[in-house]
């Protein structure tokens, strides 16, 4: 049984899908105006692992992650670059897909784009107006937050809390400071769509509401995203769906991942420490970033540190070298059941740090099982030669070189008994021979790897 921490109930509970034959989950995807930063990369990995776990536990999983391709930031950025919004969206989406692949994330089942769901958004806004949860003000349509009794139920913020100390300037088209935009006018030549309220664009929150409803229905199992989306984005999505379709519970479980820090500090524009995933991938393999992300529990903050990355690279290298010693190709698959302790850790609210420490134990005890579990987490995507150093035979100790050469000669004369004996002698000395098309190479295996 999988247990997950529901952000709304604020507790860990058994995960019971609405329909155990078909688990449904929705993750808020990127607004495609520029490359994602490492903070946005974390949910890609977290929810990829969750989808892998759920696919292991249930016959079918429908995983939806949207692309927000309408937004003021897209319009602004396209104008700066003097290209069309379509061109910016196309290029940025392609870069996002390449980023996801570099992180080892499997493709999602549906990737709806906001521009393809305008009719559904407009229909939902019309329902909200008809039910007196939304009002038209000039050329805007706003959601009246006070009309939803449980507004704040997800984030734990009551309307009163939000007023105290708030110094937000209230736009003149709003009746109340808490009301939020469902539809706004598009000026002159700006990107826009025709609607009953004139040419305009949808608000961000209604996009996700309409897309999840269209693809997963009024009630679905899991809604995920970064912790920074709890308020206002997810609170508002929930208000829209529950008010448009009374009796609907919307998402039954809410999952949020913690934020990413850089060297102990919050990433922020003012500190100038935003790191794009691209910049991180220039320095480290995607697999190592994925390993780092899984090394912290998803609900906790994650600190991206140079020292931790170095440690991660070494840990991964040890695992690859262990596979090499066991004669196992990292990418070959085995039909063996997953290690029980490993699976128990993942089923317990995705305790990936514990699952990774189990992986380290398996490296010593059972490399075949380690490979199986590592692959389950999306690891071991590279080849041994990419990760483990291979030394040229000519570069070191003459006594060893002599033995390697003797073994090569024995092989040439098909004296395999002698060749095998020499290989075993070398291995006992901590030397592993690797036969390549260019001849034999060898490398030292450190003592802790032999043990
Ligand atoms: Zn969303």
Q: How many domain regions?
A: 3
DSSP helical segment count: 17
Helix vs. strand class:
alpha/beta
The hetero molecules present are: zinc ion
Number of strands: 15
- Just give the CATH class of the largest domain: Alpha Beta
Rg result: 27 Å
Write out the CATH superfamily name of the largest domain. HUPs
Placed side by side, the strands forming the largest sheet appear as: 4-3-9-10
Please name the CATH architecture of the largest domain: 3-Layer(aba) Sandwich
Instruction: Indicate the overall shape.
Output: elongated
Mean pLDDT: 92
| Spatial gap, N to C terminus | 35 Å
- Reported by name, the CATH topology of the largest domain is Rossmann fold
* Low-confidence regions: 447-451
Main sheet: strands, sense, barrel: 4 strands, parallel
Helix content estimate: 40-55%
Strand percentage lies at 15-25%
Please provide a brief summary of the model.
The protein is α/β, with parallel strands linked by helices.
Structure description:
- By secondary structure, the protein is of the alpha/beta class.
- It has three domains: 3-131 and 144-166 and 201-257, HUPs (Rossmann fold); 269-386, Isoleucyl-tRNA Synthetase, Domain 1; 393-450, no CATH class.
- Helices cover 44% and strands 16% of the residues.
- Strand 1 and strand 2 form a beta hairpin.
- Residues 447-451 have low confidence and may be disordered.
- It binds zinc ion (ZN).
- Residues 28, 208, 233 line the site of zinc ion.
Structural descriptors:
single chain, alpha/beta, Rossmann fold, Isoleucyl-tRNA Synthetase, Domain 1, 3 domains, four-stranded parallel beta sheet, four-stranded antiparallel beta sheet, 17 helices, binds zinc ion
């Amino acid at each position: 049984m999988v247990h997950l921490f529901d952000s709304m109930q604020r507790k860990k509970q058994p995960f019971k899908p609405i329909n155990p034959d078909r688990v449904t989950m929705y993750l808020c995807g990127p607004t495609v105006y520029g490359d994602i930063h490492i903070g946005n990369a974390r949910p890609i990995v977290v929810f990829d692992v969750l989808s892998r776990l759920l696919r292991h536990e249930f016959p079918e999983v429908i995983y939806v992650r949207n692309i927000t391709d309408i937004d003021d930031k897209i319009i602004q950025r396209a104008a700066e670059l003097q290209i069309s919004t379509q061109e910016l969206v196309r290029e940025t989406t392609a870069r996002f897909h390449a980023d996801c692949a570099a992180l080892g994330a499997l493709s999602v089942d549906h990737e709806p784009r906001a521009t393809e769901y305008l009719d559904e958004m407009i229909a939902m806004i019309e329902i909200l107006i008809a039910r007196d949860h939304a009002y038209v003000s000039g050329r805007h349509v706003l959601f009246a937050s006070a009309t939803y009794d449980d507004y704040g139920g997800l984030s734990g913020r009551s309307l009163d809390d939000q007023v105290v100390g708030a110094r937000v300037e209230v736009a003149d088209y709003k009746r109340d400071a808490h009301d939020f935009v469902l539809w706004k006018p598009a000026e002159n030549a700006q990107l826009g769509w025709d609607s009953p309220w004139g040419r305009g664009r949808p608000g961000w929150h209604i996009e996700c509401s309409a897309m999840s409803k269209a693809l997963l229905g009024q009630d679905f199992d899991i809604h995920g995203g970064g912790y920074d989306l709890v308020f206002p984005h997810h609170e508002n999505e929930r208000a829209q769906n529950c008010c448009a379709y009374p009796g609907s519970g919307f998402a039954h479980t809410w999952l949020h991942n913690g934020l990413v820090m850089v060297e102990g500090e919050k990433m922020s524009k003012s500190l100038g420490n935003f790191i794009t995933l691209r910049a991180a991938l220039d320095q480290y393999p995607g697999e190592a970033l994925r390993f780092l992300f899984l090394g912290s529990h998803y609900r906790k903050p994650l600190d991206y540190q140079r020292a931790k990355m170095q440690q991660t690279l070494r840990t991964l290298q040890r695992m690859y070298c262990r596979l090499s010693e066991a004669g196992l190709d990292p990418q070959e698959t085995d039909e063996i059941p997953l290690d029980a302790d490993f699976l128990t850790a993942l089923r317990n609210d995705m305790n990936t740090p514990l699952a990774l420490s189990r992986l380290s134990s398996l490296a010593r005890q059972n490399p075949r099982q380690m490979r199986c579990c590592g692959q389950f987490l999306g690891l071991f995507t590279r080849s041994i030669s990419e990760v483990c150093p291979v030394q040229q035979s000519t570069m070191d100790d003459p006594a060893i070189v002599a033995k390697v050469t003797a073994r090569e000669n024995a092989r040439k004369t098909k004296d395999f008994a002698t060749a095998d004996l020499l290989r075993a002698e070398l291995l006992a000395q901590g030397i592993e021979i690797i036969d390549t098309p260019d001849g034999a190479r060898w490398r030292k295996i450190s003592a802790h790897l032999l043990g």
